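Entry for the shared binder. Reason: the reviewer on the internal report wants the predicted structure included alongside the sequence.
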Amino acid sequence: MSKFRVSRRRMAKQLENMNRLFAYFGDNTLEELDRVAKIPSGIDGWPSGGSGSGGSGDADPTLLAVVRRLSTKPNYDHRQVSAETAAKALEDAHTSVQHAYRALLVFKTTAEEKRGRETSLAECGCCSSSITGIGNDRLRANYCPACYAAWHRSKKAGVSDRVRFETARKAQLQAEIADEAQ
């Protein structure tokens, strides 16, 4: 038995919450979140005078003390920290949703394949013969075992184009049928 047990009701509630979250984010919200999250939280090192001259050259011990203190203790901006947290959480959620999507694809595909194998027959892409899927009579690369072996031989011979192979194989099979008819 699985260790992970979530009720159907709880999964539905989680999906509902995710839909509400996605509806909250519009283009403007995402652009602003991206802009604020990209703002560096450290001190940029520019003087506060605004003249652009780099200062007068005089030593200002008070300014040096303030710069030294700000350099060791970063400025705390609640909005920027929350934007970084939200961006990180969205990235983690995206990764989790991708993992869940892939797992659901495997779950659903495996269930459909098991159901389909019992009652359906497949056709070879070259000779159109029926393939049962039992034992060695399996569909590989859309070919029956004989055409699959011919495909491997042609790949070893340097023909890696499937369309050209299928055209040549169909012509070869029709020629064999015509020879047998005569």
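Summary line for the report: Residues 78-119 form the longest helix (42 residues).
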